[in-house]
Recover the amino acids of this structure.
């Protein structure tokens, strides 16, 4: 375990590395985008439940019991989960590779 | 102080309970169910064996709180699913779909939608900044004493309400399923929980949750497949019959009485979504994995299992409308449409019996019991960590306690929480505890979540702001629930609710954010300056994981 002083020195170096700014803005941008998608769809759905409940029970086609509500919810369960998979894939691959590189550079320079 | 707060809360609620008790008829004690007991004994011996093995590996504080940080993403995903899906999920949500139709599905998506948000905004930072409790994160650059105390108070409040709800449910359920006396049932649950947590710590708790999650997924799937086979696996056939037989008819497909107005619907959505992100026993699971990579994978697996199981429950609930709802065997006095034997929560169990006989009923009963054990163990561990790690080691001893001392306190705390859970469970026997889970989520969303997310994202957060906002959210959530219909009218017997909605989050959560923000902005003390300055280093660690608590080598 490094001492606090050398740890702080590494933090300072990481902050100065332009790759760090790149990592943060890329990853944060991506996470924010996905969050906005989830929140918009989810609260959009709850707005419909709240203000137009009749639409929820509307059938997608004559004689079918698959309603707008059931279809929309099933879609959310699947789509939101797919988004988590997309995020995990990119964060664990692309973003973590940049992270490792940044930490390696900063630790090297300090020593 | 903390004990006093909870005692005060209880004093407020207890006298009223005896009144409410008369209205709720006690569940009938059933004859001994040998299949269920056999399978349960099997589960208990297996988990006790694991606890024995885990006890040998639980030596350091890190082993006790976080299983040494060596759990894989897949294991943790299963354990999170096991921690998150309580008996209320299996029994309560199936019953909800059975009685209210699509309302139950709307509840479930709100329970689910918090997970992607946790992944995108929190998982990685939780793992990179936290060690044993989420207060490690909120107090990272703030005043240890004040912020940890606040976080521990709200954690313990959440844990206590959640624990009581689980214990009461456990007692009723076991009485009904196993034919054991309510009080004995509570002692069994409390004692097993104490053994798992005290001796096996997070290692044993994790494995109890993993085994339980597997049992739950398998049991639910089996019941669902057998039930669907009666309709030729056709959703349309099943729904056609369900709609024509149910007293609600077509209304089954529309949002109904659970979401009577826009405010309730939105408040529920907000409370469940962000409550999930503020539950101490769930947050704690993020510290058990090796690194941020595994933390992310945990959410991927956990949310997959949760999403799958919620859809299984939807099908179970609809199928039960026909299979259980038309079978006189499951109604008191054999009168279809009358009172369900054992109460409304037994729908899932009756469905298991109808499609798979006593053997499947026994299995699902054992699953339900295992579910309760897994959830209470996770809660007790989170509560014990708040007491020993936050209050004892960091606030009282100011970081000077040795690991041995801290561990000893955590074990006493686990036993203490077990006893509290048993006593409260007995005190609240006759009460409808459904509001307690809602309250736990409301407090988690209003007291824990705002401070936690701001501490990770907002440089301007100061100790004063965090403390003011956290307590404001806690008090507001508790008061709004006390003044709502479910407590003020139903429990306390007043004529008119002072707060017209059942869900507090829409009001208490923004209030907490607002107060945190304003107080932090107005805080120009020297400490506040230093706290803001310390954000930059915290930010680098949150983003990169450099300096994060490492997994101990085993």
């Amino acid at each position: 375990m490094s001492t606090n002083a050398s740890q702080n020195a590494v933090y300072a170096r990481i902050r100065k590395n332009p790759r760090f700014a790149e990592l943060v803005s890329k990853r944060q941008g991506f996470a924010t985008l996905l969050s906005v998608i989830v929140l918009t769809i989810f609260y959009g759905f709850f707005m419909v439940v709240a203000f137009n409940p009749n639409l929820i029970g509307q059938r997608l086609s004559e004689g079918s019991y698959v309603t707008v509500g059931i279809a929309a919810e099933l879609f959310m369960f699947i789509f939101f989960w797919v988004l988590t998979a997309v995020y995990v894939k990119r964060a664990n691959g692309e973003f973590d590779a940049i992270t490792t590189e940044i930490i390696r550079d900063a630790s090297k320079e300090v020593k | 102080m903390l004990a006093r707060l909870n005692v005060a809360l209880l004093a407020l609620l207890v006298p009223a309970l005896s009144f409410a008790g008369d209205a709720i008829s006690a569940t009938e004690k059933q004859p001994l169910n040998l299949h269920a007991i056999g399978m349960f004994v099997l589960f208990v011996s297996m988990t006790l064996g694991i606890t024995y093995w885990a006890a040998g590996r639980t030596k350091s504080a890190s082993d006790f709180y976080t299983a040494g940080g060596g759990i894989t993403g897949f294991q943790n995903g299963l354990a999170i699913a096991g921690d998150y899906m309580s008996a209320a999920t299996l029994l309560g949500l199936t019953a909800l779909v059975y009685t209210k139709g699509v309302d139950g599905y709307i509840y479930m998506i709100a329970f689910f939608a918090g997970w992607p948000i946790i992944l995108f905004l929190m998982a990685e930072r939780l793992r990179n900044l936290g060690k044993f409790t989420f207060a490690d994160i909120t107090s990272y650059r703030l005043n240890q004493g004040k912020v940890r105390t606040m976080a521990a108070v709200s954690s313990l409040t959440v844990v206590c309400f959640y624990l009581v709800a689980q214990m009461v449910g456990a007692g009723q359920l076991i009485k009904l399923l196993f034919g054991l006396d309510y009080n004995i049932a509570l002692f069994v649950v409390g004692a097993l929980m104490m053994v798992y947590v005290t001796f096996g710590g997070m290692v044993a708790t994790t494995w109890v949750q993993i085994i339980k999650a597997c049992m739950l997924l398998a049991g639910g799937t089996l019941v669902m497949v057998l039930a669907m086979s009666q309709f030729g696996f056709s959703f349309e056939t099943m729904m056609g019959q369900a709609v024509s037989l149910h007293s609600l008819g077509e209304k089954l497909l529309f949002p109904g009485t659970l979401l009577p107005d826009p405010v309730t619907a939105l408040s529920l959505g907000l409370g469940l979504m962000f409550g999930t992100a503020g539950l101490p026993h769930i947050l704690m699971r993020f510290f058990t994995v090796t690194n941020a990579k595994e933390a992310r994978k945990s959410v991927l697996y956990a949310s997959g299992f949760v999403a799958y199981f919620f859809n299984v429950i939807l099908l179970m609930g609809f199928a039960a409308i026909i299979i259980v709802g038309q079978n006189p065997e499951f109604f008191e006095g054999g009168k279809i449409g009358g009172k369900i034997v054992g109460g409304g929560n037994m729908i899932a169990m009756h469905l298991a019996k109808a499609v798979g006989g006593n053997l499947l009923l026994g299995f699902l009963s054992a699953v339900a019991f295992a579910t309760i054990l897994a959830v209470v163990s996770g809660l007790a561990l989170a509560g014990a960590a708040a007491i020993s790690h936050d209050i004892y080691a960091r606030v009282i001893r100011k970081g000077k306690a040795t690991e041995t001392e801290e561990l000893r306190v955590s074990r006493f705390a686990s036993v203490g929480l077990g006893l509290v859970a048993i006593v409260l469970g007995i005190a609240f026997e006759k009460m409808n505890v459904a509001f307690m889970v809602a309250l736990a989520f409301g407090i988690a969303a209003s007291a824990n979540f705002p401070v936690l997310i701001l501490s990770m994202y907002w440089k301007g957060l100061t100790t004063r702001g965090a403390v003011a906002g956290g307590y404001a959210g806690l008090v507001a959530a508790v008061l709004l629930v006390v003044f709502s219909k479910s407590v003020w009218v139903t429990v306390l017997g007043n004529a008119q609710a002072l707060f017209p909605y059942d869900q507090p989050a829409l009001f208490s959560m923004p209030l907490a954010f607002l107060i945190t923000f304003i107080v932090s902005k107005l805080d120009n003390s020297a400490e506040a300056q230093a706290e803001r300055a310390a954000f930059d280093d915290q930010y680098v660690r949150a983003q990169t994981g450099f300096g994060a608590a490492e997994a101990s080598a085993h």
